[in-house]
Amino acid sequence: MWDEEMELQDAKVGQSFSPGSLILLSRPGNGGASSIHLLTAQQDVLLDSEVNATKATEAGRLAAGNMGPRVSAMLLPVVLALVWSVSAQAPAPTEVRIACGTKEKYQTPERLWDKDWGYTGGSVGNLTAEKQRDSDFTHLRYWTMTDGPNNCYNITVPNGHYVFRFFFSFGQADNSNREPQFDVSLEGTLAYSLKPAWSNTDDTSYADSLLFVDDGTATACFHSTGHGNPAVVTIEILQLYEDAYDLGFGHWNHHYLLNAMSRVSCGAGKDAYGTTLGADPWGGDRYWSRDVYKYEGDNIATVETTQPIRNVNIRPQFYPEAIYQGATITKFGGSVSYAFPIEPSQNYSIWLHFAEIGDLGITAPGQRVFDVLYNDEVLFPDVDIYALAGGPNAAVVLNKTLLVDGKALTLKFKPKVGDILVCAIEVYQVVEREFPTKASDVWALKALKYPMGIPPRMGWIGDPCVPQEHPWDGIACRLDYGQKSRLITGLELQNEGLRGILTNDISQLVYLDHINLNDNSISGPIPASIGNLNSLTRLDLANNKFNGTIPEALGRLDKLTELYLQNNELTGRVPATLAAGPVRGASFNFVGNPDLCGIPGLKACKRLSAGAIFGIIIGVLLGSGFLVLCGVVVWKRRENIARAHKIMSPREAPYAASHTRANAPVKDVQLSRFGSFTEQRLMSVSGGSAPQSPKV
């Protein structure tokens, strides 16, 4: 069967193939990426990905898109064996489950929860609004306006791909038993907006998203919209494989998050978590709800089987076998439709799950064929489950990402031959993630926050610039595509009642082009490091309590056209480089500083009296004389030391050179000198001749 290398074939849905053939199912999308599905006829192989996904080393995935490679069929079983081996030996995924508001670990019938941690402020309340799915919880965490408009959970996790899942509710202490409305952002991107009546259904009381964490911290922020206090009961962060739910965007997959709009197990008897259904832990413990009341159609029934299903619980998605052992079916040529409420003009990724259950009597391709439509447009034509899977009891997954214009996404299964069968449906909103604020700018703002006395009401928690719907108050940002980040370009903190000090950390905000701290009570000196902000064009520190002198460094700001320092407590002379500013057309204001001087509009700097000048001159002369005297003393001391060294070195003296034999000891030379001197004294006293001394 595997004795030759075979071409990939561009298959039509429903087309049958000889055993061992490699089938590439490709469908162009209407406004979205096409879907690629690789499988082998009559083999236990089913691999799916999006166009341009290159995952040949993981689960046997093949590069899609403009590809023309040939695949060795001999290698596919080997690849699968390796995949199963690696999967079996893979470490356990990271799982964080937090029961918000609890002080100790919390046990429910299905899992153990961590005590509350990682939050930024807030209060604990009792949960009074009950939900059937998680009725075991009794506490929640909530935030009032005194905590500020933005509050977050920051959970340390390894970098990777995760499911973020939340349970929202409310109680008496937090919201007087009235439903609040608020927003939730994940990694700086707005993910959910809880709108009126969200608590009426599980689909909006529970939310989950799939996204990547690239900075070692999973961040979920809760943003007040002025309609009650944000509240959360549980938070779960569950690791997936990197290539799970691959959109085919390569490394740009990290730039998108998938919001689960619906995840339905068709024909299931009850709602259940993935682990309850026997899914691998790397499947992210996804929650599957029943499709009861979610469909419309005629002659609809459900079917279940206990027969094993092939191609399940495999990397990367690890779909549980149970979702393929039940199905919603139609009889007598009926159709079935599922309607999902959505946000208009957004991209959605649709994942459809099928398995031809062997109990239903389909024994060959072509006996069950149907079209799948979305909003009356063809999504997948001529779907033949038996042909795609290569037989009964084998899972098939079809996926496509597309742009949907309307407010609802309706999936309709329309029969062409036989009846309809569908096992499960997943619908995800594809959200492009916001570029975060540059890390150095974030750290600089955090360093300024407490010294300046920024109050909680200004919301300086989370990312300063994103989500764009909830930035920090008083911050101006600019997106830099080259750096793939947002830059802080302005501080607009005028009239905020600030009473702290301005520290040198402001110089770390190197992209600032304007600073406005007007009308506060900020004290202390003006940081000289502001002179390093080369892009600064406007600096307004008026009506504060700044003191000390104006830094000369401000004169280095060549682009500065507006400088307002009026009504502070500044002292001394205005630097000459700033005094010339108005001459070149700049607008500078220094008035209202009683002890500031040196330019028109301010008082003249005081002139010294004649006595003061005379005193200064005398002081300078005395100081100079003292310095000269110290220099002379030091010089004389060095001269004396040098002379002493010469005396102690006899070979350098003229008499030593003439009266010392070449090999005479030093002590002989000294005696000779002493002897000659004695003889001369005797001669001068007696007037006679002295005895002859030996010649040297």
From TrEMBL:
Location relative to the cell: Membrane
Transmembrane parts of this sequence: 612-635
Keyword hit for Repeat: yes
One Pfam family in the UniProt entry: Malectin_like
Record keyword Repeat present: yes
InterPro entries in UniProt: Leu-rich_rpt, LRR_dom_sf, Malectin-like_Carb-bd_dom
Bilayer topology term: Single-pass membrane protein
GO cellular component: membrane
Top-rank taxon: Eukaryota
Main location: membrane
Domain Malectin-like: 98-430
Alphabetical keyword list: Leucine-rich repeat, Membrane, Repeat, Transmembrane, Transmembrane helix
Protein name: Malectin-like domain-containing protein
Organism: Marchantia polymorpha subsp. ruderalis
